[in-house]
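Entry for the shared binder. Reason: the reviewer on the internal report wants the predicted structure included alongside the sequence.
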Amino acid sequence: MKALGIAATGMLAQQTNVDVISNNIANANTTGFKARRAAFQDLIYENRQREGTLTAEAGSARPTGVDVGLGVRTAGVVRLNTQGGLAQTENQTDIAIDGRGYFTVLMPDGGQAYTRDGAFQISAEGQLVTLQGYEVDPGIVVPENTVQLDIAEDGTVSAFVENDPQPVELGRLTLATFVNDSGLRALGSNLLEATVASGDAQAANPGDPGIGVVRQGYLENSNVNIIQQITDLISAQRAYEMNSKTIETADQMMSTANQIK
């Protein structure tokens, strides 16, 4: 009886499903977080009678076969890259991306990572950095005695220094895009890195065709829909219970068969 093994694969799959859903719920208030969805595939089939074979009785072809599946497996965890809502913070170093794209940050090992979290700060050296202290690329250095920082929708960063009525242009933020956003690897701390699946980063300016704009004084909320996640959690729980019930039923059936004399 293969029901025990088949149901076990179902329980493992639903456990993964619950793990993904719980991570989504845990990050419901994480800036720039994108919800994930577990995707599943059926396993190979045991073919007991092939479609199209001739019947011994009449010599006609069978319209259907007898295939018994051997369970399910996790095919992948897909990132859902829909836009999160924008929350106004009025903090001049908070920047949200409204549309497609990622901020680029420099990692301590010299590599690059990408993020939708625009909760930036100014370091002791005047650099625009992430909450972890990683520099934003291209680098923006804010002069001392800056009284106001102005970031336009096209990424141009200007500073008003002391009593000078004319702003000083400090540089321009760019956005990175990828052919396959779902192929980015999550590093934690709201950071992603490029992979072979995502393709190389393509730099673009905010506001270019097909590229988002930046909004100063805003942060992008998580795109997690709590109601949908709770519904999915209940569904996963019920599926897990049914697979467990299948194992229990299969055990009872084998016990009954063993008692036949």
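Summary line for the report: The chain has a mean pLDDT of 90.
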